[in-house]
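Appendix C reproduces, verbatim, an entry submitted by the partner laboratory led by Prof. M.T., so that reviewers can inspect both the input and the predicted structure.
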Amino acid sequence: MNDFDSAEQRYEISDDPARLDAARIHHWLSTDAYWALGRTREQQDRAIAGSLNYGAYDLASGAQAAYARVITDRASFAWVCDVYVDRAARGRGLGTQLVTAVRDDLAPLGVRRFLLATKDAHGVYAKLGFTPLAEPDMWMSLQVS
């Protein structure tokens, strides 16, 4: 889908579900992502199955180095979630490239509203054009315990 060079490695971004390393994704998210700590493997597998998934793969080794999951109708709306870059691959712009690939892949289908939530990476996403909600009072959520 998309190749790019970083300072030290070369990655390929793909939405091919056969390439996903589900065990690695689960480990990353359930042990190191504040929003998914403790997520079960079964929950993660269901999330993967019900979503459009992107992986970034090291071309030298083939290992998955990053992941993003998108909940989308592929027509007008996309929720970008579970964006994770392996600690060894951070600091090289891989996360930015991954989310850029998601945006560039879905925009031609008519997707005009991309949402995401972050506690600590506002600056990263702002570089891609994400802004705080213009009218947050319009949005509602339901938290089921």
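The CA atoms of residues 65 and 86 lie 5 Å apart. Additional entries are available on request from the coordinating office.
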